[in-house]
Queue: 4 jobs
Job 1
Amino acid sequence: MTRFIHDKFAKDYLEELLKNYGEVKASEKVAGEIKEIDVLFTPSKQQSSNL
């Protein structure tokens, strides 16, 4: 079980919210850093005007 239930909810919510606009990865490790980021969002190359 996750330590902080709100943390899991926020990650799932952001992933669901942003998945139509680009790539979303929860708990991604950053190269060259010791830290781990919570949510990594990479927008699609094709931008929608109704974003």
Job 2
Amino acid sequence: MSVTLPESVDAWRMVSARRSFEGEVPVVAMKRLGGALAETDGTARYELDFGRDEFGTAYLDVRVQVPLTLTCQRSLETFVLPVTVDSRLGLIRSERDEAALPPNVEPLLVADDSKLSLLDVIEDELLLALPLVPVNPDSTLPEEVTGPTPEEISSERRTDNPFAVLRELKKN
């Protein structure tokens, strides 16, 4: 088990050695992910395990936990979304190998030189875990956006008669 995350590894050697990596990486180190966030503070806790399943398929198990600061698209305020990733990636050499993967395994195409950037894998999985439209579940729309409720509108209609003005004109 390794605490430090190497810049790149030989994927097939890691599978043969059944290598594992565990540690933390700052969110600010993930530039693509940072572009989708409101703030890049905090750290991501990760566990990466290489191996082969009972069918001989090479895999990489990715487990990441991180609180991410997003901008709510309903209220435009920032909120913290705890994100947990737990996925199995099947390591493949070419796209045609994808069909041989079990149904619950996502493909991860390994380059011809067998080099794999573990930080990129973590970042990709976190990007896929982000909601398409971030909405804070505890948020509500501002009152100026929502306007009056249907009950308020119906009570206003009862008190304000649009024909009252005509009645006054008719009297004059």
Job 3
Amino acid sequence: MRRAQLPLSLVEVAIGTTLILGVALGFALGTPAPDRQEPQLDAYAADAATVLANDAPRHDGATRLQEVVSSPQGFERERDALERRVARILPANVLFRVETPHGTVGTPTPRRVSTGVATVPTGYGRVRITVWYA
């Protein structure tokens, strides 16, 4: 009984074609894009922290941040002004939360979102600014 055999060159062509198609498909589909939001969000948080750390105080203190963190009364007095100032600093599509030793302002940070964070040390404690896209 005779058996039919494929020529070796035909087998090589089939394997080569499969390999080439596999590589081309890998390039076409690629890998998932990295999450590029965090560096930009970190920059927004750092910018907001820098502006607040250099803003002139409204009442007393060396800077706006020191005025806010110097006492619970100072925080309560400046809470609304701080929230408005941070909202003006950041783009409209970015939400924020500012945490001080005496309280927080802004929106609670949601879970499972990319965030940017900046921390500013002051003479009265640390101020943490967290930002994320709305």
Job 4
Amino acid sequence: MKLLDINTWDRKQHFDHFSKLKDPYFGVTIPFNVEHAYQYAKDNKVSFFGVYLHACMTAINAVENLKYRIVDNTVQICDTIHASATIMRSNNTFGFSFIDYDKDLHVFLSNLSAEKRKNRAYTGSVSTG
């Protein structure tokens, strides 16, 4: 992880503005055609969710600005962004997961499967993964 120099950053004014807000978050929703990913998952008998999540994480890890994280009022550039998803259990509760990202889809799917097994084995009502 590297530290970004806020004072020389071209987005310093944005950082100063948004860091003073009580809830400085926003979201964007856009349509995507996932037909090819869906067909790939079906043809290869793998989880569509896993293929979709891997594609998202690959895109995120390809854009440096999406790897920025604010830690103790500093901007740090993460080497890798990993995935997190809620995992439903058979008792209708869910757990939070931490899924190690890997560029290789099959390694990532294996990591996702391991996290699902771990989360589903938890018998309490809330898990942090």
